[in-house]
Structures are given as structure tokens and as C-alpha cells.
Amino acid sequence: MSSIEHNTGRTEPELEIAEYFVQTREGDLFEFDIERPIVIDVGEHELIQNIYLDDKENFRKIVKTGIVNALLHYNYTETDEEWEYFKESIQHDISPIITFPVNIKLHNIKAEKHEGKIITFNSDIVSVDEKETVALITRWSCLECGGEQTTGRPVLKVCQFCQSKDVEVKGIVNSESVQRVLLREPMGEAKHSTQQTFVGEIHSEYVGNVYMGDRKKVTGIFRSVPILKKFGNNQRNMPTIDVISLEPADKIRTVLPTPELLERFETLIKEDRLVELMTKSFAYHIYGNKDQKLALVLSMIGGSSEGESRGSIHVLLIGDPSTSKSETAKKVINVSHKAMFTTGKGSTGAGLVMGMEKLADGRLIPQMGPVALCHKGHVVIDEFDKMDEKDRGYLHEVMEQQMISFAKGGKYLRIPAQTTIIACANPKFSRWDEELSIHDNLPFPASLLSRFDLKFRYLDRPNYDLDTAIAEHVMKMRDGLPSDLLTEDEVMAFINHARTLTPKITPDAKKCAMDFFVKLRNNKNNPKDSITIDQRQFEGIIRISTAYAKFHFRSVVDIDCVEKSIELYKSSLLSFGMNVEDGMAQSGIADYHAKNATNFEKREHVIHKLFAKLADPEDQLVVKSDLMDSIKDAELFDDEFKMEKMISRMEEQGTLSTRGNCYKWTG
After folding, report:
1. Residue 2 pLDDT exceeds 50
2. By mean pLDDT, which of 129-133, 519-523, 615-619 is the weakest?
3. Beta bridge partners of 504
4. Could you read off the pLDDT of 141-170 as tens digits, one per residue?
5. FRET pair for 99, CA 20 to 30 Å: which of 238, 309, 431, 555?
């Protein structure tokens, strides 16, 4: 050890760490790269354990200094010109990862048991405050005698020369960067689903390198920091974690398939059985809904972010109550590598995206919500229709620009949020009213609807055969997952592997998607109030096609992928009673027979045709009673009340205007 001691002159623990690396981990010194931190496990050697037990609070500084000394000894001698330059360049930037065994969960931390003790736990970083500095060494000057002294204490009350209390700060000799972060317990570890939150304080190289949304394994000292304001006669303290070490948490689920499982998936792809098996295995307790399940799996795989185009595939499930929408979507949480569940009724826009958190000392800091925390993950929002319109407005930027802009409390942030939104909702009047148009049934505006790449309507209608099949499936699934289906871990492994693929779309596939979109958009027979076919729908088809290629482990997005994605997209529109064959974006109502008209748009079109037959060639007027009789003869309605309701609504919309005892078509 003499060579290192000669070069460094450091105290014994640092020398022991340096010697340990030179003798035992020479490969780390040889391959050292500032961008690839050296990892040290506290339990890897008895020497490391003893140093840790002797001085837990300064252990990280000891290790860091020891590694710097070892690198200097390994690469240079003290006489080298580069010695000081190298030392200066790495001693602040080097950031070793020290792994500690997790020994506690956040909800189990108690001041009575853990004050001043080192603890290790998993945590989400939900907020990061501004950078600050604290003085390590301060130079003071006495105004009475003029004497100067240097101290490590933050406050000097008495001059050591003349005992005067009239002292002031002359300057900061040495300081350290610090930053406050908000540490929140991961939902998977929370007791009774109630997440505990603590303030953490990070130092030196961690400052500026920790970001909101990170999940870390945190090692720190539990301290009670006094709050300036008092509560009655008692001095209250703010529980704080003085962070010693941060390392990537292994709790983020990145399960990948084993070689055997991967081979099984490839065999299923060759036999064209993977879609069938995957849709049966995902949310296996839910009968049917194959296209909806496939849409959710493709959404979890995602497309590819290219240029300014997003890769997230947003999905909306809307329809009657008790149709398994929420139960199906909730299963995303179990198989996604990063996902959270929330409800529209229990969420505000600030809580869902980002808001301000008031700490115990009165300071306000920004805090991330589920949408921001699940960057490159998924958020399932149930009861989406119960959200206030203002709160839903927070999602517009996230769903399209994949960013969160936050300006509040004097703080401006703009952070990435490539989060996929999966929403479940009921119609405006709880159940879908087929007498109304699609948009009249929707509880949110068309601008938000267009951001969903796939949307499916659920209807609850009595059907003897279907009801029997559902009941039999429910009874069968009470025995658990059938042995021939994939487990949730296997589904997760499949999705994680598919997400890593980057297929490129071929020119022929691009043309196929473009032809379909142009034909769909330029349909002149689309009724009013239909689902808008805009540019976002075309980009959505590309995203779905890319996800389909990933699903089948393909290196390119070919015509087959586009055609399959078009079939799924058509299925989503068909669920709303729309006909998309031959490029029709809505029902092909030009030749639609009156008796088949079952919703508002179709009936309005049929009434228009009846009106045109009855209209006077000169003034284009139709006697009201004649129009009513013609509608009755066409058997458009079950009873007269529904017919009168329809006519009244057309009058309110301005489609029909009254001229005495006649109508004029003004729609």
C-alpha cells in the first residue's frame, strides 16, 4: 500500500478502498469510462462491509475518494503533468453506483425506530426542486476586533478571539450542490394502496442528474429537519431522507422471454396462431372482444416515434355499463412494464398530469401525476366521461405533442410524456341512445376523440346465444387460467420483446395506407355528426401497422401489416354502426332502405329522400301532415312520439324550418 500512500496521503479507509481496486478490480480501472459508472455492492467483500459499518454516513465519500486515488495510481505518477488535471476532471464527475440491499418499505419508516439510521427502499421520483448550495467551509470576520476565522459550521455566534457576537460572513471557502426531491412509494409496495411520500435531499454529483419519473433504489439517512414555523408550543419537524446513494431500481419490470419462450412465439407466428392465443390469454376471464383485446395489446407494443410523429397508440372503450370495458382495460396494468390506473371522477387535471405540492415548511414544488410518471408507459383512465371538461383539457397536449408544459407558482417546466392513454367511458346519457347521432352520444368534443387511434363502442343488448356463451365462460374461468393459455408474465415478456423491434415501412405499404385514407376521407355521402376522418387517422393507421409488424417480429412493415391494421380500424368504426366497405366512412346510406334505418343519421337521410319526393317544384315546400304520413308509411319509428321527437329535433337544429302549415328543408 506504500505506493498509493506516497501518492495520495489519504486517510486509512480511502487507502484501503484504493488498494482493494488496484489488487482486486483492476479491470474496472483499465476499462474506466466516466459515462459508465463503477458498481460496488456493499456485500461484495468483507473489507467493504467493515468500512461501511464503521462510517455509514461518509461511506459514499470514502468510496468515491478511494476510486479516484486508485485511478490516479493506476494511470499516473505524482510527477506526471496530467496528474492534477486528471484528478480535477474526475473527482467531481465520477459517480459510482453503490448497491445496498432493500431493507424497508416507505410506509414502514417510523421516526421512533429510524431517526439517524441508514435505510434503503424503492421509490418513484415525483418532483425535483431547483438547485441550491450549502456551505461546507465558511470564512467569518469579527466586526469588533477584525479577526478572521474559518469554520465548517453554518452559523458562527461568537468570535473566538474576543467573544464578540458581532460577526459576519466574509465568504464561502467550499460549498456543495444540493437539491430537494419528492420520494413516493411505488403503488405495488403501498399498504392499502396508500402511497407514502417523503422529502429527499440529494448532494454533489446527483444534483441535476435525477429527473421526475425516475424509479430509484434510494439509500439515505432518516432525519427530522426543524421547520421554522411553530405549531403552538411545539416545534414540528419535517421528515427528510438525506440521500447517500441512488441506483436504478430493479422493480421496473423488464421481463424478457427466455430462448424457449421466444422459440414458441416464433412457431405460433409461423402457424398464424399468435393473434388467437394472445387475445384469449390477455384478460382471459373476459369472453370474446377479440378486436378490442388485440387493440390493447398493440397499444402496449406501440408504433415508432419518427420525426414529429408520436408512437403512442391511444385507445378508447365507450359504451353501455356492465360490458367489461374497465375489466379488460385494467389488465393492461398487469402486463405493462410501466403503467398506472386512475379514475376520471377521482382525478383533476393537475393531479393527473402535474400540479404543485406544498411541503411541510411551506415551500411549493411541482409534483408529477400518473401521466407524467408513466413516460413511455401506459395510463388507464376509467370513468373518463366523469372528468370535468377543464380537467380533460390537460390531456390534449400530452396525447398529441407527447409533452407537458407547466407554468405555475413562478416555475416553468416542459417535460416529455410519451404516455399512452387507454380510456373507458360511458355515453353522455349513461347508455347509448341510437336515436341520437354519434357525437350527441359522446361526452367529450371531437378534438379529443380524434386523438384516439382506435375507439370501440360497447352495446348491451339481450342475445340468448351470446348471453349463454358469456355465462358458460364465466363459470369456466372460475377455475383459473387454462393451461393452454399464456400467463401474464409470458404476455409481458412478449410485449417487452416486441417493443424493442424497429421495423421500417416499405413504399408499397405506404401507398396502400394512403389509398385507403384518401378513399375514406373523400366519401361525399358521409352524414353530419359522424366520426371525423382527419390526418390523425392516417397517422394512426401507420402506427397500428408498425405495432402489427412488431407483434409478428417482422423487420419491415409490409402491405399485409397495413391491410391487417385497416381491418382492425374498420372494426372499430363498425362498432359504432358505421360501414367502411368500398371506402365508405359511414353507413352506405345512398341506397339504404327505410326499414333498416336505426339511428338518427340514417333516419334523417331517409326523411330527406321522402321530403324531396313530396316537395313542390317551385317553392320546395311540403305540407306538414303529408310529411308525417309519408314517414309513418315508411315505418321509420315504432310509435308516433319518437317521430315527433325526431322532427322537433330537426327543427331545433335548423334542418327543417316552418312556413305556415308547411316545412322547408334548410339543412
Report:
1. no
2. 519-523
3. 556
4. 888 887 888 877 566 778 877 887 788 888
5. 238
Q: What is the mean pLDDT of the chain?
A: 81
CA 329 – CA 337 distance, rounded (Å): 15
| Residue that the C-alpha cell 421495423 belongs to | 503
Task: Identify the CA nearest to 431 among candidates 295, 318, 562, 279.
Answer: 318
Query: Where residue 316 falls among pLDDT bands split at 50, 70, 90?
Result: very high
| Amino acid, res. 153 | R
Asked, for residue 580, whether it belongs to a domain, the answer is: no
Nearest to 341 by CA among 372, 381, 291: 381
In a domain, 587, yes or no: no
Question: Which of 426, 420, 433 has its CA nearest to residue 383?
Answer: 426
Are 38 and 223 in contact, with CB atoms under 8 Å apart?
Answer: no
Q: Is 398 strand, coil or helix?
A: helix
Question: Do 567 and 629 sit in the same domain of this protein?
Answer: no
Q: Provide the H-helix boundaries in 363-506.
A: 370-373, 389-392, 395-401, 438-441, 446-449, 464-477, 488-499
What whole-number distance in Å separates Cα of residue 93 and Cα of residue 74?
Answer: 18
For residue 562, the domain's CATH number is: 3.40.50.300
Residue 119, exposed/middle/buried by CB under 10 A (0-12, 13-18, 19+)?
Answer: buried
Give 110 or 28, the one with higher predicted confidence: 110
CA angle 597, 603, 609 (to 5 degrees): 110
Reported as type and span, the H/E element at residue 99 is: strand 97-99
Q: What is the dihedral of CA 548, 552, 554, 559, to 10 degrees?
A: -50
Q: Which three cell numbers stand for residue 276?
A: 388467437
CATH of the domain at 151: 2.40.50.140
Query: Is the model more confident about 448 or about 74?
Result: 448
296 and 399 housed in the same domain: yes
What is the count of structural domains for the chain?
Answer: 4
Please check whether residues 114 and 92 belong to one and the same domain: no
CB 120 within 8 A of CB 161: no
Determine the structural domain holding residue 647 and report its residue range: 592-665
> pTM for this structure?
0.71
Look up residue 623 and give its amino acid: V
Burial of 308 per CB tally in 10 Å (0-12, 13-18, 19+): exposed
- Chain Cα centroid distance, residue 322: 26
Position 155 scores a pLDDT of 67
Residues 465 and 398 placed together within one structural domain of the fold: yes
C-alpha cell of residue 624: 306538414
